[in-house]
């Protein structure tokens, strides 16, 4: 046991933190897409596991064809928008439950992503080549550029959801019946929301491919769980810090913070030399715990109130 702790060098952990922050911001961007469907639309969209890979596949193949990186990312976003639209159409026009529509899109994207990558399970380019905006070879620059992307997306989402259409989309997720009674086409709103969500997720996949220098057919596996982890952690931390003052802007900001915190924890787990094969299990446990916190907190408060009322009633009877 002593030799185990002696083998842990704090310097190794400190050295790994910048990389964890860079990846956390990129996954935080992905979580912003998940937030749109999970919180605003109240839809369980599992297509993001495939869309994340689509963004990476498009980026790497276009980069290998010597397209500028901005063009790679734009096409990646467009591919994500199309994938999200397909999920929305399956759900709203064909009556397929949202969770099944997402699974069908994810399943189809596996073959499509393979086709994009020329039927290869992975494709790569030099992560330190010229023309990249985010690279593993320059982590400080990767943090800066990914943070700029995250901030720009937060600003755009804050602006969009303040518009008439954005407000209608938020209303759709809050109350379908009331929104429909107000003349809002809830099916159209769902399709738009799913398209925007998957477009952001695909952008995140493109940025991750840029950062690590390759795209893999399984790079998006479990992405929905990681995205949910960032959303839940961000919400809990944001509420703990801001409380009732946390507005929509604060929620978006803390979602990215949640992504960073999640990957910092992952870095600590790896530093402790725990088996990385258990990371998915660890993530599931973390998400479950953070999901349970609001419920348990609310339940404890209600239990305390009931006990207080019961105590007051007994005091009154005794008098």
Give an overview in words.
With about 325 residues, this protein is mainly α. It has a domain at about 15-220: ABC transporter involved in vitamin B12 uptake, BtuC. It contains 12 helices and 2 strands, in the order H-H-H-H-H-E-H-H-H-H-E-H-H-H. It has a two-stranded antiparallel ribbon. Helix 3 (about 50-65) crosses helix 9 (about 185-210) and helix 7 (about 165-175) crosses helix 9. The protein is globular, with a radius of gyration of 22 Å. It starts with a helix and ends with a helix.
Feature tags:
two-stranded antiparallel sheet, 319 residues, mainly alpha, 77% helix, 2% strand, ABC transporter involved in vitamin B12 uptake, BtuC
How do you describe this structure in short?
Helix 3 runs parallel beside helix 5, helix 4 runs antiparallel to helix 5 and helix 7 crosses helix 9.
